[in-house]
Design a protein that fits this description.
Length: 155
């Protein structure tokens, strides 16, 4: 894996990307250089950081779930935001379990791992339903409220 990571990094450098961004993008893309390049070129890495900040703000009671849900689903990046939220939750959970190299840097993770797992599953079901004529903003707002209640200050 290290050789592949080095090779992927070299390829991304040849495309003109800088080292700090390369490392973050490869970690977020789980080593997939094509996906990392896409996110670097099209703002996906920045969007992932924004999702992490919003989850932290919701967990701290500094952002409202309804407003964030409406914002996240207001444009064509809604599905990607939900993907990032799910991935960040899994990374935070892995970091909590002590997995080497795991842990979403900067995401404040709730302590209850079973609730995170259930939230992850529900979030992915919501992501799959985005194309259906449902009020996905209300479903997502409920999930973001659930995220908030996983923290002591959100109860």
């Amino acid at each position: 894996p290290t050789e592949l990571h080095d090779e992927s990094g070299e390829w991304l450098r040849s495309k003109g990307f800088g080292d700090p961004d390369i490392a973050l993008a490869l970690a977020a893309a789980r080593g997939n250089p094509g996906l990392a390049a896409d996110w670097l070129e099209n703002g996906g890495l920045q969007l992932r950081l924004e999702v992490m900040k919003k989850l932290n703000a919701i967990g701290a009671g500094q952002a409202g779930p309804i407003e964030v849900a409406q914002q996240w689903l207001s444009d064509e990046s809604g599905e990607l935001r939900l993907r990032f939220a799910a991935e960040l939750a899994v990374e935070a959970m892995a970091g909590s379990l002590g997995a080497a190299g795991a842990g979403a840097v900067g995401l404040n993770a709730p302590a209850d791992l079973s609730r995170i797992a259930n939230w992850y599953d529900a979030l992915n079901r919501t992501r799959e339903q985005l194309r259906a004529p449902l009020r996905n903003d209300l479903v997502l707002a409920g999930l973001l409220h659930e995220w908030r209640t996983m923290f002591p200050q959100g109860r």
